[in-house]
Amino acid sequence: MDKLLLGLLMLQRFTVYELKNIISKRLWGICSDSTGGIQAAIKKLLTSELIVYEEYVERSVNKKRYSITDKGREEFQVWVRTPADITGTTKMELGKLFFMGLVPAEKRPALIDGLIENTERELERYLELESAINSSIEGAKVEFMTFWGNNSEYCEGIRNAVQNTNDEHNLIGIADYQMSSIQFLIDTRKFEIEWFKKFREENM
Questions:
Q1: Is the pLDDT of residue 164 over 90?
Q2: Model's pTM, two decimal places?
Q3: Which residues contact 137 (CB under 8 A, 6 or more apart)?
């Protein structure tokens, strides 16, 4: 999770609450939005001097807003420039299919049907997420462009990372790849649903 937080903090400053909100809305299929997990990752990043924070008071409540350091930007670049390995993403729950031969034959179809229904519900949530992001993308672009315009160190950080001084072009690229990760999850779930339907038809 720590690297994902670095990626978010590459874009803008955030509080833990704001980070949790973004993860729950846009990254829930990739990582947990557990407050404890986020705080543990934040502590690790602070200890490694990859992020810093500023304290402020809002409505009589003490808050901390986190931002990435130059060292954090370098660390993130090392990570993000290493090819992804998604071969280990198979869910532990797949073990239930592996051992389904130990279940009475008459109970197996219902188990496969339940698996399909669970996957269809997850697909529906991804589709809703895609729709929500698409409907808010223009507002998000304005927000980031405004933030970068008022925070030169963030703007420079993005330009250095992408090695391009065209801020609008950089933002479009960032948004496109974020959407592609959601599209991957959607296409994967569609494939899984069709695979299990075919499996049920041919084996039960």
A1: yes
A2: 0.84
A3: 175
